[in-house]
Structure formats: structure tokens, C-alpha cells
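re: ur question from the group chat, yeah i did fold both. here u go
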Amino acid sequence: MREVLATLPHFEATGPSHAGLAHERYAPQKDDEKEESGSPWRRWLGWMDGAREPEHYGVAYRRWRGSLTQWHTASVEMRATGRLLAGHGNASPTGVGLTLHHTWGVPVIPGSSLKGMLAAYLRASFEPDEVAEASRRLFGVPGDERLGQKASVGQVLFHDAPWVSAWDKETKKGPRMLARDVLTVHQRGWYGTAESWPNDYESPNPVAFLSVRPGGRFLVALSVAPGADEETLRLLRWAADRLCEALRDWGVGGKTAAGYGRLEPEGRVVVNPPRAVSRPSPERDAFKAWGEAQRVAKTEQRKVLEDFDVQWRPRLVPLSREARMECVQALRVLVRSPKLQERLEELLRLLVDGV
């Protein structure tokens, strides 16, 4: 199947529409690295080099970011200062893995990688007794009957760090995400079977693979449950600050010793409280249903305002401020006539003030 895919016309086009699918399914059989650049393997690498962010990924990214509002969340956008190789050891047809979003094909840093890297950073940067309690609350601990120690789960949730959407509406193009890379093994005998000592006459063996381009941005986010106390919120911010330090100084993913995986924060860590959940309100829901009926029936906007003032405003005033604001937005959608804006604003002001 791979040989057939390699001959399709779209293989010559400017990059795949889904980088994840192309990486896992379209890669041709790997040929001799010394073959000419026109081989299927080389052409596939050049094709993948043109992979761009999908057009509608921004909608999914904003929806995902909005989902973070259900917790206390510390978040910051971070920019890759060099190449990034997340998922290097994953099973892959190319021999070198790469973590790409299953649905959208954009690069993503798994939350488990961030959690493991932070744990290693804390062990290396602090004395054990300095961070013992923080580590227990961050990562949890297993139970130990001999010591009388109960198991506990970590209080902080490490989210996957998704690619930050950068779709350009003017050019109708997303940024390029991947780049061709190469690892050159100079001492195959020594690294492979250790049958010979390193020498200066053995031929190098360049291994081509794909990595994430420098400049890509990722949203790093940590969360704790709603209702957390002040001590837990301080722990959340402290963990986010330490994670930024680890990403900046250590890097994440594979080949960090060679400078891969370094990310710089774009601004400061922001901690947002959970958004208030809208409570059930029969009157609010009935008003929204009435408004939708007026929209479908194309009722005259002046008549909509009159009915709202006489029938609905007295019923909506006793509602919570949050519910009243929802009704305000619903009425703004219904009444758009410039001639009625003064009257509309007057009625909305009365509703907001609860009069």
C-alpha cells in the first residue's frame, strides 16, 4: 500500500493536509540513505516538510482552551527556541516517533512528559526535604503498609500542551510545523555491537527524520479542582513557575542534550479561577425560547421591544445578575435596528439594574 500511495499525484503537492495521518500511513518503505534525492523516501520527507496547520484547527483549539475554565488553571504560552522532538521513542513506520494530535495532526506535548520532566527537575534542583511535601501533593505517593503511609493522588492536573493556532486569515495559510532533520551516526560498529573501537575511517550513517520547527508555540496549563484553598493555589502557581524553568533550561522530549526541546515563556503565568456555572433558570430558558420563536417568525423589532417591556422584563428582574446578562445578550441579537437602539439600551439598563 505504501508503494501505491507514494505514486499518487497529491504526494507531489505542497504538504499533507493531515500531518499525523501522513506520518503514520503514507511513509514509503525506507530506502538506502545513500540513494539519490529523487527516491520515494526522500520525496516523502520533502513533502512532510511542507505540512501546515489545518484551516479549522483554530476552532478546536479555542474550544479546548475554553474547557480549562472549569478549573483553577495556571497557563502560559511557550515558544520553541529550537527544534522539538516529542515522542522520539514511540513506535513509528519511520523508525523515529513524533507525537502529533490524532484528530488534527498538529504537534502536541503530552501532559505525562511535562509531569515527568517537572518531577526530575525538582529532584535535581532541590534538596529532598525541601520539596518532599510539594512533590507528594503534586504527583501523589503510593501506599506503604510497613510505614503506615496511605496512598494519595496528585492534586495538580497536567494537561497536554497543544499547538497554539496561528492561522493567517489574509493568506489563508497556517504556519509550517515540521522540518527535515538528520542524525549522523559516525561509529556504527561501536554503538551497535561494540565489536570495534571508535575510529576515524568508518563511514558515517546519516539517519533522516522529522522534528517540530523552531518558533512553534504551545499552551502549557496546570489545573486544580474548583474550591481549592489558598495553599493549593500557591502550590499551583509555584509548580507552573518551576515547569517554565525546566522547559527553558532543560527542555522536553528527545535529544535535549543536543539543545532540542527548549521553550521560552511568552509572558507571565496567568492563574484564572473557574468560570461560574450557569444555574438552571426556567424563566431565562423560556425567554430564550420566546426570542428564538420571534426570530424564526421574523417579528417586527419594534413589536419585540414592546412585548419584552410589558411581558418579560417584570418576569426577568428577579433572576440572578448572571441570568439577566444572558437575557441581555439574547435581546441584543433580536433587535439590531439603529432607530431602536436608544430604546433598546434603556430597557437593557433597567434589566441589568434589576428595575
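okk and heres the other one u asked abt
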Amino acid sequence: AWLRTAARAEARAAGTVRDEAGSVREHARAAEPADPRPGPEQQHIDAELLHSVREAVGRLPGRCRVLVRALLSPRDPTYREIAAELGISQGSLGPRRSHCLNCLGRLLGPAAVQARSGPRSRPAGFARGTGWGILRETHR
């Protein structure tokens, strides 16, 4: 019974099965999964986003610019390392980071503010968990 079930499952995957009478039937094949890579349009949107973020980070006030660049560093420093580099306490790093990211959002303009105003909405290109990854692209 197990072997028959497995064989039928493989035949379905191949597009054909034998019914109880022994005749062969064609089954519609399942659609091929879509390519998970972003298409040209999404690549263009991502490139524009990266360019906008890169410019906005460059316009941040001095300490915020240094902090955001440290957070986005490809070497991925710890909070302790960043705090030591900036000469501030590790406990004040979180509130400063929040302030600096708000400044960055204001520099990015109304689109960033609009994206933040909705419930759990994110700007284009900032899918769940990918925001810092995209921002890191700006400093590679």
C-alpha cells in the first residue's frame, strides 16, 4: 500500500497516473514556482531606494551620520564597540539610534513618513527583517 501510494505520487508529479482500471490519464502539471529573484522593476526600485538612503545618510548631522554608518558597517560591530568608538555610554546608544533613524526618515521625505504612519507598513524594499540589510547595501 505504501509503495503504491508513493508510486502514484511520483506519477502525479511526472504528469501521468494509472487509474484502477489500468488506463493512463494525463494530469495537469503544477505550475513551475516563480523565480524568487526580484525582477527588473523591483531591482530599479531597490536601486533608487539605496541611492536615496545613501544621500540621506550623508546629510545627517555629524554624530548621527557617524552612528548610522557605524550601525551599517559591514564588519557588524557590537553596541559596545560602537559606543566606545563614539565615546558615549552603551545605554545611550539605543535612544540616540532612535533619534538618528527618525532624522533619517525625515530626510527621506514624505514617502518614509507615509510608510511609517500605517499599521506595520514598510517602505518599498523593506520587507520584514530586511530593512537593515538594504541599508547596509548603501555602505558596501
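fwiw on the second one: Confidence is low (pLDDT under 50) at residues 113-130. The two ends are 57 Å apart (CA to CA). idk if thats what u expected
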